[in-house]
Amino acid sequence: MNRATLPAKNSLGVGMDLAAAGVVPPMPHPPHDDISPPAKPVLVAGATGYIGRRLVKELIDTGHQVRAIARNPAKLADEDWADLVDIVQGDVLNPLSLANAFKGIGGAYYLVHSIGGEGDWEDRDRRAAANFRDAAADAGASQIIYLGGLGDDAGSSLSPHLHSRHEVGQILALGPVPTTELRAAVVIGAGSASFEMLRHLVEVLPVMVTPKWVETKCQPIAVRDVLAYLLGVLDEPAALNSVLEIGGPDVLTYRQMMDGFAKCAGLRKRIIVTVPVLSPSLSSRWVGLVTPLPADLARPLIDSLVNEVVVRHHEIDEIVPRKPLTYVESVNNALRRVHDLEVATTWADAELRGRSPADPLPADPDWAGGTMLTDIQSVHSSADPEALFRSVCSIGGERGWLAGDWLWTTRGILDRLTGGVGMRRGRRHPAELRIGDPLDFWRVEALETPRLLRLRAEMRLPGEAWLEWQIEPTGSGSLVTQRALFHPRGLAGRLYWLGVAPFHSLIFKPMLQRLCADAEQSQFSAAP
To answer: Could you tell me which residue, 522 or 12, shows the higher pLDDT?
Structure first.
């Protein structure tokens, strides 16, 4: 589908013929000793997200030079491909950082979206897209590739989420750099937000009471097919200045998708009762309670379920010939990866709420940003630093928090009741961590093997919180120091700390002692 066929974009002049605009393409240079100039690097914005991490690996595997933008480059430092990629610090809301990231770039992928963020996320998306478009133009980039969402442009019935996805595509296309917008519906893959919402609803609830959107039609697509299409349109002339719709071979209702998942997972057929009275707000709260997705993320996804998202234009079949996986094949692949602990990326890799650069960090002095309240515990252990670090890095998820589990569970329930992430996110891998990984209602902020692990809280709090372990070798083992830190916000933050402080004695000291005991047991049981 050429952009000129879209009413919303035609009025903006998108997709104009170059000749009609008076732009004469340069004559090709004659060959010179059959030597071609080196290919320019491909830029990936959103490289820390669910699709972005996987796309970077696919680009490398197909021989491309890659430059990845990240607000926090350390989040990519533990990737297997980190040494093969030019990782630069950049923020799509900061034009100056983008100018540096775009130097010498050819094609550029835009995989950024603020869904689930706090505040006016639609306005942030507009500004971010405009900044990216202008930086690409200033750098002379050859192509922008954007992954958006399916949905009919006609009329004004699109949900805010889908409307924003389409609007971002329009903004990117307003510049002089040729733009390719791929539109997809539900992405089926281990770790994707839509798949995890579907999986947990079906696994947890044998009986579901749902709104009428359960009968809406959708055309799901496997994540591996999304990646193949993203790669296939790069440097493809037929894909320039176009909106291309992608999807798998099956058009299903959400009821059929849930029935199909239950069958693939070996579950009994779920009973689904449709009622007309459940509001999107109430539905998102319910989804927030029984799935890992917080209500802030579930709400825009549920709002979009009222829109039919099916492929109506099939130009992509000529540009990137491919036989996509069926829905059943996609689900089986995803379930196998979950079972085999091969979930490379998850929806939770993307942070749902940002923080101000002015917020203090645990390493800041006490006067930086105000008061820092602490609970500090230290224990000498006979285990070496490596064994202790392995024990610390295995905390949370299925292993639990080793002390006061009922308190952690209660805190998670309270967080979900107020729209937070709660404890259901778990962890990507039972023993391995990397910077940026979600860990229940924490996120890994710092990781220095074998001496430091720092987690930043993502539960709803009247302030900012961290949990940190520092390990130092001693002559007879190790000294591990555990710090719980809280930077309160106003009076509410201070009252919160006073309210939870009595429970610290039930959690923090016993937890650290258990971590040390487990490390000592594992180390000495493994000794010859």
So the answer is: 522
